[in-house]
Amino acid sequence: MMRKQHIHILGQTPAGWQKALTELQQELGYVSADDGIEIQCVQGNDLRVESDGRTVTLTWAAPVQFYRALSLIPQPLAACSVHEEAHFETCGVMFDCSRNAVMTVESVKRWIDLTAKLGFNTLHLYMEDTYEVDGNPYFGHLRGRYSKAELKEIDAYAAAQDMQVIPCIQTLAHVNALFHWPVYREIHDAADILLTGDERTYELVEGMFRTLRECLRTNVVNIGMDEADLLGLGKYLTLHGYRDRFGILMEHLRRVSEMAKKYDFELLMWGDMFFRLAGGDYFTNFNQNPELGEIPEEIKQLVPENIHLVYWDYFSRDRQSYERNIDAHNAIKPGSWFAGGLWTWTGFAPHNAFSIATMREAMRACRAKGVENVVMTMWGDNGAECSKFAVLPALFTVAQMAKGIDNEAAIHANFEEKFGIPFEGFRALDLTGTQNDSAEAIYNPDKYLLFCDPFMGQFDNRVKSGDAAGYADCAARLAVYADHAEYGYLFRSLRALCAFLSVKADLGIRTRAAYLSGDKKAAKALCTDYDAALERLDAFYAAYEQQWMHENKPQGFDVVDLRIGGQRQRLLHCRDRLLAYAEGWLDRIEELEEPVLDCCCEEKADGQATRAIFWHEIASANVI
């Protein structure tokens, strides 16, 4: 084992640096010792590392830069001159802990180590109901929620590296998991929305704030309140009749705002509801449509002083669009935050290429418009199947741009130097060479081809000739890094998925063709492919189970079992019926006689991939 480098730190240092260095020594490769290389530290205005090959001068402005600077010192020591200037007051990442995958505390610490070394100084935890709230035993029950002790442990670990943990909760919508339990159905308005105006709702919200105040150092809380499209149109409508929905929103916002003041919280709020209720569609805002007029002054005056808007946009590749929308949010309340997307929420594979295409223009717009606070979201819609670590190329690109490094070749070279894997080699996790991989749009055949039914043909129009072979080629590319010490498990998991899809992708098409031609010999031969698909599905399950348990709490994996188990049973069932037909025991297979219609109801799909996120819509057209 390589001996850790001894360093002797002198001068101006952040408080608590000794404890933090002890926790980080495995990652950094350093041990503090009096006989070590002398590192003279100076607190200044930016980050600098200067060395003549014998001693080092390290300049830092914020504590997070001190720890990042340590990671930039060459090992073994060599002459160097590094200068980085932070362009944002806060820059961080939000990961979704609410769609079944709740990271273990150890995985969160691993994430903090990674992102602190890249220069990020915030970690946003998106928790709809996955944290403990006193007096609410069903809040997050069976969902892997964080206990108060776990939140305190995460917060202390982050604070040691000058990273702020910001909770992202929901105080209006997106709490559908709560309504699984009858105890919360009395405060259910419509869809996934809490019943505003009901004191029981505000008792629950205050309990949320009380937990957060007890467990976290931050004075910032994101209270959500996004996408509440049916606000006031369910139980609220029954109780109170129809009321102006913007008025309902603002009344609720004021109640939550006043409650937060008791706990000294400044609040972030996703900005879309101001546009949805006051000006129509979120991405068709006042600034883009002059006919809508200026933002009414009365709307600006209604925003509580402790509320700050967050402009979120995960889709645009147009810098001017970002700039217009930043202006629109700032017109309501100056100083808006920006949230972009590192795409982890469409299936098992990441979308680094598309994430980079969108975030590159977003970061340029944020710098041009003077945005001070930026966060990259990593959502987990419909199962959170994708590892957060799989978007490392996009994460690294954003980290570099936040320091003013905007040259693609330089970013790729820095990535390989940092992680020991070529940038494009790591990006093979995007399933390069398949229809999954695009910088132009999001497609996710990795998910819908895994879960679609081989007899029903719902997605057959979305498969091109050669797609199956493309997955075989991709499996070979992923195998190159399958033994990597830290990230090999990601490559093994997606390699196994691609090996399965190399058989499954067009299995339904080949099955229907054999059946409709009446070729029972070909139909019988296909049963061997069903057997191969079953074997490869089992291999994928084993690899994916290892990935999940390495990163996440076990709660939530029950859904993976149900979904993959359901696919396995369908493959068995379809194989057995196909064999029965081929052997003459079965006269017809009615599903294979149904016409193949496009899943998106388009007249002509020509095999072009699409995006289908929700398992229940992929697995069957029948009621689940």
What does this entry look like structurally?
The chain has 624 residues and is an alpha/beta fold. The chain has 21 helices and 14 strands. The strands form two sheets. An eight-stranded parallel β-sheet has the order 9-8-7-14-13-12-11-10. The chain has a six-stranded mixed β-sheet with strand order 2-1-3-5-4-6, covered by helices on one side. The chain has helices at residues 17-28, 63-72, 105-118, 148-159, 199-215, 235-240, 245-261, 272-279, 297-302, 319-332, 352-369, 392-402, 408-419, 423-426, 445-451, 467-479, 488-504, 507-516, 520-551, 557-582, 615-619, and strands spanning 5-11, 30-32, 37-43, 47-51, 56-60, 80-84, 90-96, 122-126, 164-168, 220-222, 266-270, 307-312, 337-341, 373-378. The model has no long low-confidence stretch (mean pLDDT 94).
Report the oligomer.
Answer: single chain
Give average pLDDT, whole number: 94
C-alpha termini separation: 54 Å
In percent, how helical is the residue content? 40-55%
H/I helix tally: 21
> Unreliable segments (pLDDT under 50, ≥5 consecutive)?
none
In total, how many beta strands? 14
Spatial order of strands in the largest sheet: 9-8-7-14-13-12-11-10
Sketch the major β-sheet.
8 strands, parallel
Beta-strand residue percentage: 5-15%
Q: Could you say which overall geometry the principal axes of the C-alpha atoms support?
A: globular
Alpha-carbon Rg, integer: 26 Å
Structural class of the helix and strand makeup? alpha/beta
Secondary structure layout plus pairing:
Layout: E1 5-11, H1 17-28, E2 30-32, E3 37-43, E4 47-51, E5 56-60, H2 63-72, E6 80-84, E7 90-96, H3 105-118, E8 122-126, H4 148-159, E9 164-168, H5 199-215, E10 220-222, H6 235-240, H7 245-261, E11 266-270, H8 272-279, H9 297-302, E12 307-312, H10 319-332, E13 337-341, H11 352-369, E14 373-378, H12 392-402, H13 408-419, H14 423-426, H15 445-451, H16 467-479, H17 488-504, H18 507-516, H19 520-551, H20 557-582, H21 615-619
Parallel strand pairs: 1-2, 1-3, 3-5, 7-8, 7-14, 8-9, 10-11, 11-12, 12-13, 13-14
Antiparallel strand pairs: 4-5, 4-6
Helix pairs in contact: 3-4, 5-7, 10-11, 11-12, 12-13, 16-17, 17-19, 18-19, 19-20
